């Protein structure tokens, strides 16, 4: 891991357990306005800034409707993240955070959620800056969300990482891969614990696909050893 300075993780489906709750919050928000959106269609826009995802799913029409649906979605997500007992980190995530920090690697989270929803997650999981993670950036804090690189670039600037090749991006969706590529990250890793299966992720050509974040340290170690031999 000697050349890696920063790992940027997605949240829901990557570090935070998601059993379809985000997708359900989407469909429920659309249903409130008498619009049916299949779950399979919703899964295709996971990872995007949520207002952008809603616009992608919504046929043309009332320009105020995306904002209204987004407000309903945000209420649904806040209610779930603030109260549901099932909310928890994915297995080994906190152990991976600790190991990376012990090795001097900075840890950041970025997300398609707003700051309000993100804070609800962080508070429930008791993930603190800088004790647990070094930084969190939300999609409503940058000019554009994924696949644009602004969240990663903001993190790099704030944490003093100048070389994007020293950054690893980890996520569970197509748009996480695209974000990592657009930010010129040195390594883009997909994980199968979220919205996409391994076969679906393979189509977007991340550098590596792992089935659990527990496998990330070993992957980084193996790459470091390979570079040393070369």
Automatic annotation (TrEMBL):
<dbReference type="InterPro" id="IPR050155">
    <property type="entry name" value="HAD-like_hydrolase_sf"/>
</dbReference>
<dbReference type="InterPro" id="IPR023198">
    <property type="entry name" value="PGP-like_dom2"/>
</dbReference>
<dbReference type="GO" id="GO:0005829">
    <property type="term" value="C:cytosol"/>
</dbReference>
<dbReference type="InterPro" id="IPR036412">
    <property type="entry name" value="HAD-like_sf"/>
</dbReference>
<dbReference type="GO" id="GO:0008967">
    <property type="term" value="F:phosphoglycolate phosphatase activity"/>
</dbReference>
<dbReference type="GO" id="GO:0006281">
    <property type="term" value="P:DNA repair"/>
</dbReference>
<dbReference type="InterPro" id="IPR006439">
    <property type="entry name" value="HAD-SF_hydro_IA"/>
</dbReference>
<dbReference type="Pfam" id="PF13419">
    <property type="entry name" value="HAD_2"/>
</dbReference>
<dbReference type="InterPro" id="IPR041492">
    <property type="entry name" value="HAD_2"/>
</dbReference>
<dbReference type="InterPro" id="IPR023214">
    <property type="entry name" value="HAD_sf"/>
</dbReference>
<protein>
    <recommendedName>
        <fullName>Phosphonoacetaldehyde hydrolase</fullName>
    </recommendedName>
</protein>
């Amino acid at each position: 891991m000697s050349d890696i300075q920063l790992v940027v993780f997605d949240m829901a489906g990557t570090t935070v357990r998601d059993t379809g709750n985000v997708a359900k919050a989407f469909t429920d928000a659309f249903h409130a306005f008498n619009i049916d959106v299949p779950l399979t269609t919703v899964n295709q826009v996971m990872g995007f800034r949520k207002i952008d995802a809603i616009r992608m799913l919504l046929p043309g029409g009332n320009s105020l409707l995306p904002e209204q649906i987004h407000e309903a979605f945000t209420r649904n997500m806040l209610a779930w993240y603030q109260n549901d007992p099932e909310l928890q980190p994915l297995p080994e995530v906190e152990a991976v955070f600790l190991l990376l920090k012990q090795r001097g690697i900075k840890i950041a989270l970025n997300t398609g959620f707003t700051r309000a929803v993100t804070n609800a997650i962080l508070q429930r999981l008791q993930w603190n800056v800088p004790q647990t993670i070094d930084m969190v950036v939300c999609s409503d804090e940058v000019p554009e969300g994924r696949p644009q690189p602004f969240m990663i670039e903001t993190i790099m600037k704030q944490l003093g990482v100048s070389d994007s090749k020293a950054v690893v991006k980890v996520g569970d969706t197509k748009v996480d891969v695209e974000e990592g590529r657009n930010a010129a990250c040195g390594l883009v890793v997909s994980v199968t614990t979220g919205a996409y299966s391994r076969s679906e992720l393979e189509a977007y050509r991340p550098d590596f696909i792992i089935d659990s974040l527990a496998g990330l340290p070993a992957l980084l170690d193996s790459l470091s050893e390979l570079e040393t031999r070369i």
